[in-house]
Amino acid sequence: MTTDPTDAADDGLHVETLAAHGGNRIAAPYRALIEPVHLSTTFERGADGSYPGGAVYARDHNPAFVPAQRLLRGLEQGADALLFGSGMAAACAVFRSLPRGARVIAPRVMYWSLRNWLQAQAVQQQWTLEFFESVAAGESADACGTRDLAGLLRRPADLLWLETPSNPTWDVTDIAAAARLAHDAGALVAVDNTVATPVFTRPLILGADLVMHSATKYLGGHGDLLAGALIGARDDAFWRRLAAERAQAGALPGAFEAWLLARGMRTLFLRVRHAASTAMAIARHFDGHRLVASVAYPGLSSHPGHEIAAAQMQGGFGAMLSLRVRGGEPAARAVAGALRIWRQATSLGSTESLVEHRASIEGPDSPCPPDLLHMSVGLEAPEDLIADLERALDEHAAV
Ligand code: PLP
Fold first, then answer.
1. Catalytic site residue 59?
2. pTM of the model
3. Could you give the strand order of the β-sheet that contains 80-84, starting from the edge strand earlier in sequence?
4. Using CA positions, which residue lies closest to atom 12 of ligand 1?
């Protein structure tokens, strides 16, 4: 376990309360409210050779990670949490812990870098990697809200990877329904909860076994740290394999990143709820706009995943949306370049709003439409964000 017995003090508290305290415990000798940043890489043994402090070496047991891990465990309502050096490091640890020849099912629409890594690794590790497809508007969905996931789960599998809403068209999968079918097929269920955040979705409560975060995004929340996290429903054999994989491979954040992460999460609920309400206002404003071909946002009733999102996401639909610009790829690229308040950059989840012509970063094999702008809504005034987009669309989109 990476948490400690005082974690029981969190039981029964609201997640907002846990976040406000940032995972900190009053720290000796000054009764400090914020725990100190532990920088030591090694820890002294007692005269009998034991480790009375409970830590041996910072790659295995890092006291600098304790507040952030404690808080993540509480926010996702898991048994334990592990910090990693990035979201990719956390995700890769899950796949690396699978047996050779495993059958893995993942969405085709997912974080593109992980999809590419999986495709390359599947060959080396002899995994059978199968992608499920999202439904388009007007198409009928299976029990999981997808085109074919329920069918793929009729045969035994080792791991179902979900990302919902999924990057960059924010497709929605029914976690509870997928987890039931996956468990019947003998598969573990891991959910990339980066975009929904525990503010809106708690996959472990819905039946998933593992949650993964790119903590670089909303959890850190200020665009100034790179980190990842896994939260496990149980401290079981697979979880211990993940902890061993992390300790051996050493894909860890630094002590200051871990501290920044715990600090950022103290305002998680305020930031994410505010950004999501702005995203909803922007989505509604541009839905049906003469210069916008379509808006992808699970909060709109026109989104194919809206009904599942409304049931699965508590209190909001997230702060990510995409616009397809009339005039095709050249118009979309020109609009992105003409924006002044939205920063043209990859990533998401910071206080400033970001825009990206997504297909050009994902490359030629991407399922991303060429006219799509990927938009991370930040904390600016909604009127300023809308006015900036209106001006850039007027200048560059073509009816
Ligand atoms: N998952 C999602 C949904 C992401 O958007 C990203 C990064 O953009 C990652 C995972 C990877 O996270 P990191 O950049 O922290 O490795």
1. yes
2. 0.97
3. 80-84, 228-232, 210-214, 188-192, 159-163, 103-107, 128-132
4. 87
